[in-house]
Amino acid sequence: MKKLLVGFMIAAMAMTLLVGCGSAGDSSQPSTNNGAEGKTDEEKVLNIFTWATYFPDDILKSFTEETGIAINYSNFSTNEEMLSKLETVQGGEYDIVLASDYIVKMAIDKGLVKKLDKAQIPNYDNLDPSYLGNYFDPDNEYTVPYGVGTPLIVYDPSRVDVEIKGYADLWNPALKDSLVLVNDARNILGITLKTMGKSLNEEDSAVLEEAKSKLMELKDNVRVLDYDTPYNKLLEGEATVGYMFTSQAATCLTVNPDLKVVYPEEGLGFGIDAIFTPSNAPHEKNAHAFLNYILQGEVAADIYPQILYLCPNKAAYEFLPEEYTSNSAINIPEENRKDVEFIQVISNEASDLYNSIWTEFVQAVG
Amino acid sequence: MEKRRRHDGSFFLAMLPLYVTTLVFVLLPVLYVVALSFMKRDATWGVTSEFTLENYIRLWDPIYLKVLLDSLKIAVKTTLLALAIGYPFAYCMAKLPPRKRGIVMVLVIVPFWTNALVRIYGWMILLRANGVVNTLLLEIGIVDVPLKLLYTDGAVLLGMVYSLLPFMILPSYTSIEKMDWSLVEAARDLGAGKMRAFLTVTLRLTLPGILSGCVLVFVPSMGLFFISDLLGGGKEVLMGNLIQNQILTARNWPFGAALSVVMMLMTLLFLFVYRKSTKQSQPEGMA
Amino acid sequence: MKGKKHTQRRWGSGIYLGVILALMYIPIVLVIVYSFNKQKISAVWGGFSLDWYRVLFHDQQMMGALWNSLKLGISSCLISGVIGTLGAVGMTKGRFRTAGAIESIATLPIMIPEIILGIAFLTFFSFVGIPYGMPAMIIGHCTFCIPYIFINVRTRLLGIDPSIEEAARDLGAGGGRVFWDITLPLIAPGILSGMLLAFAMSLDDVIISFFLAGPTSTTLPVRVYSQLKTAVTPEINALCTLTMGVTFCIVIVSQILGSNKFKRNRREEL
């Protein structure tokens, strides 16, 4: 047994060496440097912090080839993780952060975000003005909108007999045990409020109690709650109707074009993932160079068909491939885009109420 | 006397790294969690260092008590099932020739070196409506319509036992393998039946292993959140899910911390019982 | 008569081991099969393809993350192997009043949900001034790796007859000698299984790695979970398949190399 133990240790070390050589051979991973090297020029490094693959790999590669700036891509899986981390490092370490609107707003309010130097980003003008001036950055001083999306209803018309036009139809008793919904208090209580003609950001506890009893009526229709991969449930046939985010709905359609997208008549929710530079970013100049790079029309036209979010770059419109623009989860009609609402941060009391209603609902479903 | 003290000194030296890492890197962060549970949350983000008991008062809400109860239930079920499957496995493993034991041990662990999420996806492929099991059952003609196997309590239990089984097998194996088989034989020679010998000797001698296994399975099973999300279809709220949610989506760190403190206390109670029983289980003749 | 019964029982236990192991490997087999799936989404089978392996080999970030994970897993399981083993030995052999408390505290990290431990670490490390990055991650992982080794070794130690060590000591062996020649070989299986588990736990950890990572130390699980926003691709399956392959190769090779030594070792044991 002692021999086996020693054997295991040797094997482990051998494995380390093996992989070490492999990665040393083909990677140009730069070592950890904090930028304070006493050089006048910035070192050629850029630290990006966002969800994995949200900036496609080929874009990053061609940026490095063109500019010689090596990229360290670190990942988080939720916005809240990102802000906790960014707060502890006091807006340092990272140069480019890409996260959702409400958390960007919190970061700005906390002074963790640096104003952009637009002189260094001439391509900023490529952005479509209809995606600018949002609540989290009304004067467009801090952020570059990147991924734009809206949650939609998707269903399989071959297995659903009822007509679905809006959120209210999800309550139809004919849909018993057949829904997949994103596992999120704000979104699902939000659409319940929408069916009552209220706002996604309702804080009044009496209205929320009313929404709770309405939501409880939905419990028998729910088959699965899934935040991350609801599209799989629809594609596998576990569920026949889904309420999910844009890129997830668009993924459904690329795999199975027979599925149908509904733009709910009660009005759409809306969200923007935006890029910012933290207040103490070590490589500020490289960050601006990066922003300018991805804002080029042709580069953007490469990005969006890969990430399947709406494209806010008007210079890219002419280059976007047809299979992307014809995806009905992406190509949302103009009239539906008019009446959209962001999910914003609400008071602590309201937030706690949302969450306890949600916990009770999930218990009732299970 | 002199000799004894010298040995104590070297034993103390051996324990020193454990003492230091435990006190610095475990106790202090844990104390921080405890402190956090008595704090108020700040507007929208973070906490203020204002003392409050409201996080503990909120625990008595029936919704959260139900979460606690559900988690305990599934943890007990998982532990019993893991014991029922894992102990015989460890027993058979210990009866193998020494070389094969090592191979089986490695075979037990290696699957767990692949990503947990991906492994659970493997089960989902197996269990879903158009999955392997259903296709097979339909082919044979046992069922006419696909069974709803996924997103059920059974699927969650399966995932839990699957993920935690090695934690039962290995400690059990560790103590069975070291057991003095001559004592079993002695019991048999003295006329004890097979069952009796197993119950009075084998089980008693390997109790430390069984109990370690139970600790290692029981406690994590309350904290595993992604299994009920993936295999249970997100329709079950367990302690792990609730804490995850409080921290990440509700941004209520103090309440999340209070929930964690409750879990820690339950764990410590469990460990206390465990230590008491391992002390008793040391047979007089051997210790 | 007795012999026949004996072989029957051996067969029975062999079948039982086989069935349970098969159940453990079924999901893994599916992971392997789906690494050859042409379709990006695992819900649908789109035909055989080696594309994901090609993608994998060109994915520097994935390779970098894998490398970070291995570095982290191996260093923390070796370090905690030493700390946990020494601690278990010291605690079992010596008699210290604080031992019980330390044992309970040391086991806490595997009991606390990752997320809360992650936040505690995040705050604590910035308070103490330890910079984020690989060393911080190794410390963090050691805290939850140690209990696995500690518990396994202690379980093992509780079953050892102390008279063996005393005999060695009476024959004049020093404390170090007794530990190295007598105690260590006896507890080796406990150390090994504890380290194997600890390594598995380290390889799977998402939250603590995330909170303690610096800009260049993203690990594989952090990357995998983070990828959920844009759909996990079979690239991960391909990676798992390869790591399994490599692991099995190492196991087989070490078995072949060690088989002769084992025979000798066994004779010594007997």
From TrEMBL, chain B:
A Gene Ontology BP annotation from the UniProt entry: transmembrane transport
Record field: transmembrane: 12-35, 74-94, 106-129, 149-170, 205-227, 255-274
Topology of this chain in the membrane: Multi-pass membrane protein
Residue span, ABC transmembrane type-1 domain: 68-274
Any one of the GO CC terms: plasma membrane
Keywords annotated in UniProt: Cell membrane, Membrane, Transmembrane, Transmembrane helix, Transport
UniProt xrefs under Gene3D superfamilies: MetI-like
Domain of life: Bacteria
Entry-linked Pfam families: BPD_transp_1
Compartment(s): Cell membrane
Ranges in a coiled coil: none
Major subcellular site: membrane
Family: Belongs to the binding-protein-dependent transport system permease family. CysTW subfamily.
Name the UniProt record assigns to this protein: ABC transporter permease subunit
Organism: Bianquea renquensis
